[in-house]
């Protein structure tokens, strides 16, 4: 089997996840024409080096899923997890509808296991939120308050919170570029695995445009995501309200000290807030390094912890 194909299957095997045709094509490290890719994929299936079965991808579309022959069980497991994921998302519909009323919230995306419809029964729901300009702290306060009022807020330091919302990443719309220190294969995967559920004013498209470096890692993804990386207006006007700006300063002053007091591995910049209970990114990177020297077994299944760790 081609090394670039093996690399994709090795990555997803950490999560017992069988990729779809589009997912496999998107994450190849070498550029291939779609027809050439499909011919090679069909040949692997014919030679029984890959197993194929029906699975579900977001938004609940049935499609072919692929896995290495010895891991055919991944497909059955994924179908079971898809049902868990669908049940979890039903619980969040009102939450998304309410956030839509707030201009401070410009984008909400599913991340982690839920974005792949691969959540276990006890998993929480990871979300990625992008706020309007100068509304990072008010946007975070709104998102957390609404989740709390609906009984969906995950408590701090709780390792596993079934069906609760985990708000672990906030970007302000004026700075959508992932920091250079975070640009690696794992984060590239996570960026392309985000599933938008609320997208105002082309915010998702702007996010992909700001992180074009992922297409250097995964050149075929440009074809899969072509509808989202179209040219956008160069000049975007942002309205500014002095009263809102004052509230923003206040909200930052009441939130930031508490965050810094309990700070562990969080990354806090002027326009971005990265929250995560453990440095999952490093675990995956370590696994990838050691996996190159292995032959066989995938070990214990990891979790799609979040779109960003």
Model description:
- The protein starts with a helix and ends in an 18-residue tail after the last helix.
- The chain contains 12 helices and 8 strands.
- A hairpin with a 3-residue loop joins strand 1 (50-57) and strand 2.
- The longest helix is centred in the first third of the chain and has 27 residues, at 73-99.
- The radius of gyration is 20 Å and the shape is globular.
- The protein has 309 residues and is α+β, with helices and mostly antiparallel strands.
- It has a domain at 87-291.
- Residues 295-300 and 305-309 have low confidence and may be disordered.
The helix-and-strand class reads alpha+beta
Unreliable spans are 295-300, 305-309
Average residue-wise pLDDT: 86
Tally of helical segments: 12
Number of strands: 8
Integer-rounded radius of gyration: 20 Å
Shape: globular
